[in-house]
Amino acid sequence: MARSVWHHQNPLAWLSALVVVTFVVSAGTHARTQLQPNQILVFISAVDASGAPVTDLKPEEIAMTENGQPGKVVSLDRYNLPVKLTITVDNGKESITALAALRTGLTSLVEALPPDVEVTLITTAPQPSMVVRATTDREQILRGISRFGVEPDESARFTDGLVEYAERLEKDFRDKKLNYAPLLVMVSTSAPEASSLQRDTIEKALKTLLTRSARVSVAMTTTKPTDADSVDALKNGRQALIATPIVKASGGKFETLVAFNGLTTLLPEWGKAIAASHTRQTTQFRAVIDRPGGATGPLNNLGMRLTRPGLNGAVSGDGRFIQ
To answer: Which distant-in-sequence residues (6+ apart) come within 8 Å of 173 by Cβ?
Structure first.
């Protein structure tokens, strides 16, 4: 029997097992789907025993129960929510030491992505500057990674990059172009940044990122591993203090590295995780389910399983699958 799970904090959580699948379901509904009071909406990803996405899932292969009573899948359709990745890179004066590791790590990250993932590359010194505009052209992206330079007399503007990304995201929303899952990966040193942004501007940007369901991940390294202040700034510097709450709230990752060469292994791992999320999100299904007996209100003792033998499943409340 499927074990029931109700998770109040993280609507993106997921859990899978062989054949019998536990689903972690959000209480929220999708903005574009009209639900009746007795219905729930879930986004389902299924893979076969080899790990290949299942693209022919049928309503009768999804069994939902509440308090042991069966519900009914009333609609099931394919749902596509691709990841769109933006990378910001610290190319300030203290990044010169780590430049080779930065290039190697970023190259491997991009090479780990499926060919249809759109990538934007931005450097943050002396101000945020778009090196590669959004594209799936791998040659163009890798060329940008190999060619951006270090600003020897300038500090990076980490916070400015975060704020400008939020503003672009809000513009996409206003222009009705936010038909993707936004992901921001920020690669930074712990060197003091340059920024004149006021607190209210920063807070507005962080709120926008959460409102627009952006996921933010930060990889931060010191280029002065023997300098106590530089190492301490990995946890207590301005960039870390600003980034930590948004990373946590958005379900992202925050990794600190005393040895910058660690970027060459960390960033490829992130690339693989992004690829896995993108694959799930572009091959998933959206299901509307009638609760048993016309039940409304909070869910009770929810269970779900896939009835087709050999399948593994995962679910989210909003179509996002974080790896």
So the answer is: 212
Beta-bridged to residue 306, according to DSSP, are 62
Pairing between strand 39-47 and 284-290?
antiparallel
Pair of tokens at residue 263: 């970027």
- Strands of the sheet with 215-221, listed across from one edge: 129-135, 118-123, 83-89, 181-189, 215-221, 254-257
Q: Are 75 and 160 in contact (CB under 8 A)?
A: no
As a three-state string, the secondary structure of 239-296 is HHHHHHHHHHHHCCCEEEECCHHHHHHHHHHHHHHHHHHHHHHHCEEEEEEECHHHCC
pLDDT tens per residue, range 138-172: 999 999 999 999 999 999 999 999 999 999 999 99
H/E stretch holding 6 reads strand 5-6
**Which CATH number does the domain housing residue 248 bear?**
3.40.50.410
- Indicate the pTM of the whole model: 0.87
What's the domain range around 21? 5-71+291-316
Give the span between the Cα atoms of 192 and 117, in whole angstroms: 32
Same domain, 66 and 88: no
Count of helix runs (H) and strand runs (E) in the chain:
7, 15
Cα–Cα distance, 303 to 24 (Å, whole number) = 9
Structural domain includes residue 91? yes
- The per-residue pLDDT for range 202-232, each reduced to its tens digit, is 999 999 999 999 999 999 999 999 999 999 9
Q: Whole-angstrom Cα distance, residue 211 to residue 253?
A: 18
- 99: enclosing H helix or E strand: helix 99-111
Rg (the chain; Cα; Å): 21
Give strand pairing partners of 135: 119
> Looking at the DSSP assignment, which residues form a beta bridge with residue 286?
43, 77
Report the C-alpha gap between 305 and 308 in whole angstroms.
9
The label of the residue with tokens 């020897």 reads 152
- Domain shared by 216 and 184, yes or no: yes
